[in-house]
Design a protein that fits this description.
By secondary structure, the chain is mainly alpha-helical. Helix 1 packs across helix 2 and helix 1 packs across helix 3. It starts with 7 loop residues before the first helix and ends with a helix.
Length: 92
Amino acid sequence: MPKKRFSAEQIVTLLRQIEVAMGQGKSALIACREAGISEQTYYRWRKEYGGLQLEQAKRMKELEKENTRLKRLVADLSLEKQVLKDIASGNL
């Protein structure tokens, strides 16, 4: 079965759907199966997205992407700096 990627909005919506089903007396396992995810995925998502609204989840994902991009940029610049230091000191 291929992995399916869910957007932050879809995750928050599924979490709410599962919580409603559980509020109606269904077990977590059955509610998760009806939503098409595993129980483990539900608990992982609930830990990460638990109290977030849709807009907050979108913003969090945008910030995570920006953070990753900036970390990559810092790593590239640090590498360039080290190369230039090595060249300047004659250690090439």
